[in-house]
Amino acid sequence: KIALAMGLTDRPPSIPVVAIAKPKPVDDLIASAVARESKGDYKGILADMNRAIAINAQKDRLFYIRANAKAELGDRQGALEDYNRDILMNPKRAEAYYNRGNIRYKLGAWQQALADYNSSIKINPQRVAAFYNRANAKYNLRDKQGAINDYTRAIAINPTLLAAYSSRGWVKYEVGDYQGSIADYNLAIAMNHPLLSKVYSQKAFAQYELGNRSDAIGSWRKALSLPNMMPDSLLGLAIALYLQGKQEEAFQFGAAAIRTDQKLMDVGSLRDKNWGQSILKDAVPFLQTPRMRAIR
Fold it and tell me: How large is the average pLDDT for residues 242-260?
C-alpha cells in the first residue's frame, strides 16, 4: 500500500525503447563489395553493385565500383560504359580516368587512353602509374621523346620503378641515344630488375651500335646465362662472334636462334623489331652463309 501510495507497483518496469537507425541497404551493399574485394570475389561485387544501382542509381561510387569489377572479369566494354557513367556523375575522380585509360590502352585506343591519362594526371599529378602508362601510350603513338619525358617523370616520383628505367632505355636506343640507353640499363641491372636477361640483351644491342662488340658479346653471354632468355640474344651474339672470326661458335648460336624462332632469318623481321642499323647491316652476310641458309 505504501508503495502504491508512492506511485510504485510490483510490476517490472517496461523495457525502454531505443531508436536504432536501420542501415541503408545501399551502404550495406557497398560494405559487402569492399569485403568481397579482399577475397577477389568480383562476381559477388558485380551482383552487389547491380542491386545497389537498382536501389539508387545516383549514389556516388556505385558505377565506379561496378566498372572495376567488370574490368577484372574481362568485360571491357561494360567497364567502359560504367566508367563513363561514373565520370559524368563525378568528373573529379582521377582513378576513374586512369582505369578507363587502361581499358582503352588494352583495346588499342591509344589516343583516347592518352586523353584519360592526361585527365587523371591533371587531378592527381603524383600518381606514378599514370605517367608510366601515359609514356607507353605516347610510345605507341610514335611520340618517343614524349614517352622518354614521362618515364623520367615517373622515375622522379618513384626512383625504384624498375620498369621505367628499362622502358626508357629501349626508347633511348630507338632514337639513337645509345649512351643514355646503356646508362638506364645499368641502373636497372644495379637494382636487380626482374627481367635481367632482357635488360642485358637490350644493353648489348646498344653497345653493338656504339661499336663496342666485345662489350656486347659479354652482355649477350650474361643474358643467355639468366632465366627467360630471348632468341634475339642468341642471334645477336652469333653475329658478333662471326665478325670476330669465331665462326664455329657463331654458327652454333645462330642455329639455336633460328630453331627457336624461324622469323629471325628474315632481315625485315629484325628491322620490325627495331634492331639498329649496324647490326642489321652485319646480319645480312651472316644469315646468307650456306651454314645458316641450310638451317630448317
Answer: 96
Q: How far apart are CA 170 and CA 103, in angstroms?
A: 24
The confidence band for 235, taking pLDDT boundaries of 50, 70 and 90, is very high
Distances in Å between the Cα of 57 and the Cα atoms of 26, 202, 271 are: 10, 51, 53
Which residue type occupies 49? M
Q: In whole angstroms, give the CA distance from residue 176 to residue 236.
A: 18
DSSP reduced 3-state for 178: helix
Measured distance CA(221)–CA(66) in Å, rounded: 49
Q: How would you label 193-211 residue by residue, b for 16+ Cβ within 10 Å and e otherwise?
A: bebbbbbbbbbbbbbbbee
- The x, y and z cell numbers of residue 170, run together, are 629501349
Q: Which three cell numbers stand for residue 87?
A: 565520370
Q: Measure the CA–CA gap between 173 and 231, rounded to whole angstroms.
A: 19
Contacts of 185 (CB under 8 A, 6+ apart): 165, 166, 169, 199, 200, 202, 203, 206
Q: So what's the pLDDT on residue 1?
A: 29
Decide if 255 contacts 274 (C-beta within 8 A).
Answer: no
The radius of gyration computed from the CA coordinates of the chain, to the nearest angstrom, equals: 30
How many other C-beta atoms can be found within 10 angstroms of the C-beta atom of residue 224?
17
Instruction: Please answer whether residues 147 and 135 qualify as being in contact, where contact means their C-beta atoms are separated by less than 8 angstroms.
Output: yes
- Cα separation, 17 vs 163, in Å, equals 62
> Considering the entire predicted model, what is its pTM?
0.86
Cell numbers linked to 254: 645462330
Where are any strands of DSSP class E within 128-179?
none
